[in-house]
Amino acid sequence: MESSTLLFNQLKAAEPFFLLAGPNVIESEEHILRMAKHIKSIASKLGLQLVFKSSFDKANRTSSKSFRGPGMAEGLKILEKVKIAYDIPVVTDVHEASQCEPVGRVADIIQIPAFLCRQTDLLVAAAKTGKIINIKKGQFCAPSVMVNSAEKVRLAGNQNVMVCERGTMFGYNDLIVDPRNLEWMREANCPIVADVTHSLQQPAGRKLDGGGVASGGLRELIPCIARTSVAVGVDGIFMEVHDDPLNAPVDGPTQWPLRHLEELLEELIEIARVSRGKRPFKIDLTPFCEP
Q1: Is 58 a known active-site residue?
Q2: Which reactions is this enzyme annotated as catalysing (predicted)?
Q3: The pairing of beta strand 168-169 with beta strand 175-176
Q4: Given the residues 58, 131, 136, 152, the one annotated as active site
Q5: Three-class SS string for 125-150?
Q6: Does the predicted model carry a pTM greater than 0.85?
Q7: Short-list 87, 68, 39, 89, CA closest to 239
Q8: Region for 171 from its dihedrals, namely left if φ exceeds 0, alpha if ψ lies in -120 to 50, beta otherwise
Q9: Of residues 24, 134, 160, 181, which has the active-site annotation?
Q10: What is the pLDDT of residues 229-268, one digit of tens each?
Q11: What fold, for 2-288?
């Protein structure tokens, strides 16, 4: 718990923001180690606090035929090698309460997927590991729901909790990011993270040649959502990054190309520093309000 609290305090104090980044899913040990090396190099050069992200299992896939990853046992071995080789903390998802204890032995941050953000037993099991818990806001949830989700973690004895915006359902195959959520979620009294890649998914929005559907996405708008998020003043940016997103087995349309990562982060750092210099921006609107 002490090491988790230390990292949590480092993330809260990170300027201008901390970064959770990596490939959507573990494809192979070689690929993950290579990606971790490159992303750490960029983050270190820019002075950003990095937590490396990748999933050992993508349990919520559009199709049962979709690639899911190596599974928990093999995936955790690979993530542990990343920690040792590059001395960086790691974050990964859990989908069931039984996964929390073994994942907590390796991961520094346990992530609760958006569809599971209200699952009390999962939140409590994750909290009891003592690790930092990052809860993604459900696509179906109002931002106020995250106050309750964060409180479930705290009531289970863990104060190290963060909440993450990742878009809201807008019709059947689209998500929209409402920047107001990034302010309203502060009522949860914890660090706010913006997922600037999953926010641009188009769930089940892409028809496949052989029949069926898969998730699409709007990769070209990732800079737009990222710029907005840092201008509002989020504490952290979550970004899925891949060296060949066009051929990524999972969520290729919403992974940011590794070759453009440094350029985008440099721009975000500049925007964040300018906006931080102007916060807080308060106006007394009382004279303009109805009695």
Answers
A1: yes
A2: D-arabinose 5-phosphate + phosphoenolpyruvate + H2O = 3-deoxy-alpha-D-manno-2-octulosonate-8-phosphate + phosphate
A3: antiparallel
A4: 58
A5: HHHCCCCEEEEECCCCCCCCHHHHHH
A6: yes
A7: 39
A8: left
A9: 24
A10: 999 999 999 999 999 999 988 877 889 999 999 999 999 9
A11: TIM Barrel (3.20.20)
